[in-house]
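Researcher: I'd like a candidate sequence for this fold, 103 residues long. If you have to choose between options at a position, lean toward the conservative one.
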């Protein structure tokens, strides 16, 4: 788990951009208490928490999880690909024709 005291040490990049937001008073109390318990300023706590959540969301959207069955089907298809369909062959011919006529 990230130690909030190390947040600033993770990057040489200087914080120069500004982000302003409104929060409910109860949310501010909650975040302030959590920041105090971790021994950091509220802004450092919010910045680190938001960055960590953003990284999690991006990682989740960049990863595809397959069931064991789907994984096996994918590996089988990669090892033994089906023959190209007629539409695929036509697409290749069209591509090659455009490339040949492009230059």
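Model: Candidate sequence:
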């Amino acid at each position: 788990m990230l130690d909030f005291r190390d947040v600033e040490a993770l990057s040489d990049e200087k914080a120069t951009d500004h982000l302003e937001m409104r929060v409910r008073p109860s949310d501010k109390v909650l975040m302030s208490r959590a920041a105090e318990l971790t021994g950091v300023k509220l802004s450092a706590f919010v910045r680190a928490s938001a960055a960590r959540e953003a990284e999690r969301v991006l990682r989740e959207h960049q990863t595809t999880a397959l069931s064991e069955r789907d994984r096996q089907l994918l590996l089988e298809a990669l090892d033994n690909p089906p023959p190209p369909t007629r539409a695929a062959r036509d697409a290749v011919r069209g591509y090659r024709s455009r490339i040949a006529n492009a230059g």
